[in-house]
TrEMBL record:
This is TetR/AcrR family transcriptional regulator. Keywords: DNA-binding. PROSITE patterns: HTH_TETR_2. The keyword DNA-binding applies. Signal peptide: none annotated. The lineage of its organism: Bacteria, Bacillati, Bacillota, Clostridia, Lachnospirales. PANTHER family: ACREF/ENVCD OPERON REPRESSOR-RELATED (PTHR43479), ACREF_ENVCD OPERON REPRESSOR-RELATED (PTHR43479:SF11). InterPro entries: Homeodomain-like_sf, HTH-type_Tx_Regulator, HTH_TetR. It comes from the Bacteria. One of its GO terms (molecular function) is DNA binding. Pfam families: TetR_N. Residues 32-51 bind DNA. Residues 9-69 form the HTH tetR-type domain.
Amino acid sequence: MIYLRRDSSETKRKILTVCVRLFLEQGYKNTSVSQIVDEAGVARGSYLNLFPTKDRILLELTETMFGGQFGVARSIADSKLPPVYAYAVETAIQLTLTELNENLREIYIEAYSLPDTSEYIYLHTTAELKQIFGENFPDDTESDFYEMEIGTAGLMRSYMARKCDIHFPLERKLSRFLTAAMRVYRVPEAEQAKVLAFIQSLDIKAIATEVMYKLFAMLEMKYDFKLSKDSKGEETI
C-alpha cells in the first residue's frame, strides 16, 4: 500500500511537470493527452486515473496562479489607500498579463470558462470582494457577493478574450472594465475617477511583466522544469 501511494504521487508529479510546461510553452488547447503521457513517460491508464480530464490539471495550475494575486496587488497599492485600489491593481494586472503572453491569455480564458476552475475563482474571490466592498452592501451575505462575482468574472473573461489593438488600447480596456466593475460594487463616481487616475499613473505593463516572470519562476521551481526562452516572450501592447 505504501509503495502504491508513492508510485501514484511520483506519477502525478511527472504529469503536472509536463502539463504546466506544455500549457505555458504551446498553449492549453494544443496540448494533447497523447503528448502528455509520452513526455511524462507514464501509462495512459495511470494518467486517466489521476486526471480524468485536462480540466483537472488546469485546476491545479489555476489554484497556484490565483493564490497570491491579491497579496501582490496590496504590495503595489499603498496600504493607506481604500481597498478598492488593491482590487483595481489586481484586475489590471490580470488583464495586462493576457496581453503580454498568448498562452497565458488562453490559460486565463479557459480558467474563467470551465466549471471547476471558474467555481474555484468565484469562491476564492468572493471573500476578498466582501472584505473590499462590504461597506457598500451592509446587508449582503457572501452568497450575494458570490453572485455578483459571477457577473464581474464574466466581464473579465470577455475583456481578456478581446485582444488590444490600435482601436482598443490597453489603457482603454482597463478603464472600461474597471468602470463597469466598480459600478457593480457601488463605488461612488468621484472615487471611481480617483482609482482610474491611480491606475493610469502606474506603469502597469512593467508591473505585469515583473509579475509574469515571478509567476514563471515560481511554476518552474514548484513543478521542477525549465521553460524555453521563446515561451517567456512579451507581446507588444
